Amino acid sequence: MCLLLNYRESPERLLLLKFLEKHDLLDKGFVSAHNYNNDKIFDNLDIMAGFNKSLLNIIPEGNFDRRGYHFISEKSYRSFLYKKPFVYLGQYRSLNYIQSLGYKTFSPVIDESYDEIENDKLRAATVCKEIKRLMDKPIEDFVKDMLQLQDICEHNYKLYLTNKAVFKNKCYKKIHGTNNE
């Protein structure tokens, strides 16, 4: 599954979309791209339905070529919330950052060595190769591999809910002036 709702702002999303198209991988999932001329791509895909029908999410994070601070966007949080493993096309060492927050990633089932590639174009190409490797597996093997990752997905889901509750509580205290910080 790959949600590319506004790929025009992001060259890496267009690169990923072209890669999926070139290697006939669009039939193996749900891809959404706004105003993209291909009958295998959804113009608008219901997020909940898409996640519920998918085993893997591909996250094409915006600004993957920037340097400096890392962040996690709603795309990653959706994977945590819907308990889905993911391949992450993000900036250099993004998975390392996600792990530093207590979340787990999916190595060795998913080869995440791409995260250590500093060169943006090479990192993107390596992510695409990993997606192809996963999608070329017989469906039975792919399903088995994704099922091995459910404990990690459950961990991420629980951590997401805990962090969400803590953040909500901090916001409530700030709004109501009960925060002593």
Structure at a glance:
This protein has 181 residues and is mainly alpha-helical. 47% of the residues lie in helices and 8% in strands.
Give an overview in words.
With 181 residues, this protein is mainly α. The protein has one domain. The protein is built from 7 helices and 4 strands. The chain has helices spanning 11-22, 47-52, 74-81, 94-100, 120-135, 139-148, 150-175, and strands at 2-4, 31-33, 57-60, 86-89. The strands form 2 sheets. It has a two-stranded parallel ribbon with strand order 1-2. The protein has a two-stranded parallel ribbon with strand order 3-4. The chain is globular. The model has no long low-confidence stretch (mean pLDDT 86).
Largest sheet: 2 strands, parallel
Sheet with the most strands: spatial strand order: 1-2
The tally of structural domains comes to 1
Oligomer: single chain
Structural class: mainly alpha
Shape, principal axes of CA atoms: globular
Count of DSSP strands: 4
- Tell me the helix content: 40-55%
Order of helices and strands: EHEHEHEHHHH
Through-space gap between termini: 42 Å
Could you name the ranges where pLDDT drops below 50 across 5 or more consecutive residues? none
Mean pLDDT: 86
Radius of gyration: 17 Å
Portion in beta strands? 5-15%
Count the DSSP helices: 7
